[in-house]
Amino acid sequence: MEAPTQLPRLRRRLTCMLYESLVVFSILLIGFLLPQVVLSGFGWGTSSGRLLWLHVLVLLMFYFVWCWLNGGQTLPMKTWKLRLVNADGNRLRPLQALLRYLAAWPSTLLFGIGIFWALIDKDKQFLHDRIAGTRIVGTNE
Fold first, then answer.
1. Contacts of 62 (CB under 8 A, 6+ apart)
2. Residue 89 half-sphere exposure, CB side, CA atoms within 13 Å?
3. In this predicted model, what pLDDT tens digit does every residue of 64-99 receive, in sequence order?
4. Is 28 exposed, middle or buried (0-12, 13-18, 19+ CB in 10 A)?
5. Other beta carbons less than 10 A from residue 65's beta carbon
6. Residue 19 near residue 76, CB atoms below 8 Å
7. Given Cys at both, which of 8, 53, 117, 119 links 138, Cβ 3.0 to 4.6 Å?
8. Cα 132 to Cα 56: distance, rounded to the nearest angstrom
9. Is the pLDDT of residue 37 over 80?
10. How many Cβ atoms are within 10 Å of 71's Cβ, its own excluded?
11. Residue 43, by phi and psi: left (phi above 0), alpha (psi -120 to 50) or beta?
């Protein structure tokens, strides 16, 4: 594994997040919306609201945690030459990846407080990275 470089600028990380939203939309379209249409087409109806949210959470959890544990990058992170590592610069542990994923939900959905956190954080890290003991670094690829 190559040595990570310094912390990328906030603008680059936010642009990567924007690109990530397109990938997430595609995942939800294929893994969530299409199965719901098929189920309702067979007359099985749709699930309750809580089950639908659980489906979304689990579906995206598999995507993010699997990518972070297998190379430390999602497709947008590869494109923007970013990698997720632990505080020591090593690969994430499974529970660490899961904690980052779970912490990212309130961090981003509560008016983006976890994103704005990077403006005041001494290491310019997002709140969910601070909580999970992870950091996003640039790569030399």
1. none
2. 9
3. 999 999 999 999 999 999 999 999 999 999 999 999
4. middle
5. 20
6. yes
7. 8
8. 21
9. no
10. 14
11. left
Which amino acid type is present at position 106? P
Structure tokens at 40: 């309702």
Measured N-to-C along each axis, helices 49-69 and 10-28 cross at an angle, to the nearest 10 degrees, of: 130
52-56-60 Cα angle (round to 5): 170
* Residue 81 structure tokens: 């030459």
pLDDT (average), residues 46-60:
80
Residue 2 has a pLDDT of 47
Residues 6 or more apart in contact with residue 20 via CB below 8 angstroms: 74, 76, 77
In terms of DSSP H, where are the helices of the chain?
10-28, 34-41, 49-69, 75-79, 94-109, 113-120, 127-132
Question: Under 8 Å CB-to-CB from 105, ≥6 apart: which residues?
Answer: 57
CA separation (Å) from 115 to 9, 20, 64, 121, 125?
13, 15, 18, 10, 8
As given in the structure block, the two tokens for residue 43 are 């007359």
